[in-house]
Write a structure and sequence with these properties.
By secondary structure, the protein is α/β, with parallel strands linked by helices. It has three domains: 84 residues, Arc Repressor Mutant, subunit A (Orthogonal Bundle), CATH 1.10.10.10; 97 residues, Periplasmic binding protein-like II (D-Maltodextrin-Binding Protein, domain 2, 3-Layer(aba) Sandwich), CATH 3.40.190.10; 97 residues, Periplasmic binding protein-like II (D-Maltodextrin-Binding Protein, domain 2, 3-Layer(aba) Sandwich), CATH 3.40.190. The protein has nine helices and 13 strands. The strands form four sheets. A six-stranded mixed beta sheet has the order 4-3-5-12-6-13, with helices on both faces. Strands 10-7-11 form a three-stranded antiparallel beta sheet, covered by helices on one side. The longest helix is centred in the first third of the chain and has 29 residues. The two termini are 46 Å apart.
Length: 343
């Protein structure tokens, strides 16, 4: 009996709880599918599905098997990927995942640091959401990931966590635009532009929980995958958004303001598999942590008279400069909102 094949069939049926739909998904006729389930039940000596009611359900044994089967099938996929990769003889390539909204300056600095620290290492950088990174790490198709927190990193080695406080992005015409800082409760009645929940569920839920605790329940939520689209929606009057600041400050039609009490924080951590990790994964995690901590946004401070540019091309004191622009030594940034926390 091909146990793994039967477990794959079982897992689909258990997730669908419908034999006909499962057969369609698997691309097979229903009779052979039912026979495979019966054979698996006979092999294990117990019924896996409760067929006594109109709706198919899992028995207690079936529920236990589903959890174990998922873990086993993921491990099998990872094993195949690792063996295939070893057979292809490509240990010099590190497959690294980064969030889709990672700034270009961070990517450039990270690749430059890798080239300096490990010149023989080729980094295959992939733009992947937090949830997709977790799946790829589990299956062995990713060597190291950069994940937004909170997220389930069970079975992964975590590097140092980097965090940055978020401010609010408002249309320039908003009555709150003249305030030196904005309390979450003052945003009541506004729509919120937020990244899709599927990209980082833990971070999404944590953001909304913090908003509710601060007295802000969005009237409506719109979703934007990239910082540029997010800022564009705010500029068009479609709502407010939360952002570290650098992207928003480049758009003259919006203003960025610190949040009173600093209630929102964007946290990110580099992770790698516990077992069979790529030899360069730890080095990459250390480099990315250093780059994130160094390539930080300007310090949180009231804009306007204290440094907000009067025109789109003007830069406030302490602002990030273009590559190659050393700037005035008196214009160096002060204390930063980013912190590196070592566990």
């Amino acid at each position: 009996m091909d146990l793994l094949r039967h477990l794959r069939i079982f897992a689909v049926v258990a997730e669908e709880l419908h034999f006909s739909r499962a057969a369609d998904i698997l691309g097979m006729a229903q009779p052979p599918l039912s026979q495979a389930i019966r054979r698996l039940e006979k092999e294990l000596g117990t019924e896996l599905f409760d067929r006594s009611r109109r709706q198919v359900g899992l028995t207690a044994a079936g529920a236990v098997l589903l959890e174990e089967a998922r873990d086993l099938l993921v491990r099998e996929e990872r094993l195949r990927a690792l063996v295939r990769r070893a057979g292809e003889g490509d240990p010099a390539t590190l497959r690294a995942g980064v969030p889709p909204d990672t700034p270009a300056s961070v990517l450039h600095a990270l690749l430059a640091a890798c080239a300096e620290r490990a010149p023989d290492l080729r980094v295959d950088l992939r733009e992947v959401t937090t949830e997709e990174q977790l799946r790829l790490l589990a299956s062995g198709r990713l060597d190291v990931g950069l994940l937004y927190q909170p997220s389930d990193t069970t079975g992964l080695v975590r590097g140092p966590e980097v965090s940055v406080e978020l401010g609010v992005v408002l249309p320039r015409t908003s009555p709150l635009a003249g305030s030196p800082e904005v309390a979450l409760g003052e945003l009541t009645g506004h729509d919120l532009v937020l990244f899709p929940r599927a990209t980082a569920p833990g971070r999404y839920d944590s953001t909304l929980d913090s908003c509710r605790r601060g007295g802000f329940v969005p009237a409506r939520i719109q979703h934007a995958r990239t910082p540029e689209f997010l800022i564009g929606l705010v500029a068009a009057g479609q709502g407010i958004a939360f952002d570290p600041g650098p992207v928003a400050r480049k758009e003259p039609r919006v203003v960025w303001r610190p949040l009173a009490g600093r209630p929102l924080t964007q946290r990110i951590v580099a992770v790698r598999p516990t077992r069979a990790a790529h030899p360069a994964a730890r080095t990459f995690a250390e480099l990315v942590t250093g780059v994130l901590a160094r390539d930080r946004p300007p310090a949180l401070r009231p804009p306007g008279e204290s440094g907000e540019p009067g025109s789109p091309g003007e830069k406030p004191p302490g602002a990030l400069r273009d590559a190659g622009d050393p700037g005035d030594p008196r214009d160096r940034p002060g204390p930063r909102p980013w912190s590196v926390v070592y566990g």
